[in-house]
Automatic annotation (TrEMBL):
Required cofactor names: Zn(2+)
Top enzyme category: hydrolase
Molecular function per GO: metallopeptidase activity
Species per Swiss-Prot/TrEMBL record: Flavobacterium rhizosphaerae
InterPro entries in UniProt: Peptidase_M48
Residue ranges crossing the lipid bilayer per the database entry: none
Similarity remark: Belongs to the peptidase M48 family.
Protein's recorded name: M48 family metalloprotease
EC number: 3.4.24.-
Amino acid sequence: MVAALCCMVPAMAQKNFGSAKYTAMCSYYGETITGDIIAYESGTTVQKAVAEIMSVIGLKPNFELRVANVPNAAAVVIKNKRYILYNPKFMNQINKASGTNWAAISILAHEIGHHLNGHTLDNVGSRPQTELEADEFSGFVLRKMGATLPDA
């Protein structure tokens, strides 16, 4: 589901968010992201996956989803607006390596967990405790969506 359009990047709606050094990101692997962030409109399949994630927890998204030149995925606040940025090549590779679309769904849920748990509000970025909390949220969401333990 997610892999099908993760790798399709629309040519329109490119936006330069500015330099990453001015933001504290909760990136998926916890690494520091530097340089300029260029983002694009997200594909409809990924938007649908996020809508499914949000529907199982009964909340509306308080963030925007964007394809971006990040190494993997990140939850970030830029100019007082919440975003989930993701690299479609990374998402495609992780799904291919795992043999399932649950991998990308898990990553998206993890990043959503950062926003919903308030991790992006303290301007600190990734740290072990917040990464574990986002992982726990992701696991909760996967179970609610019907993933089995081997899927997760």
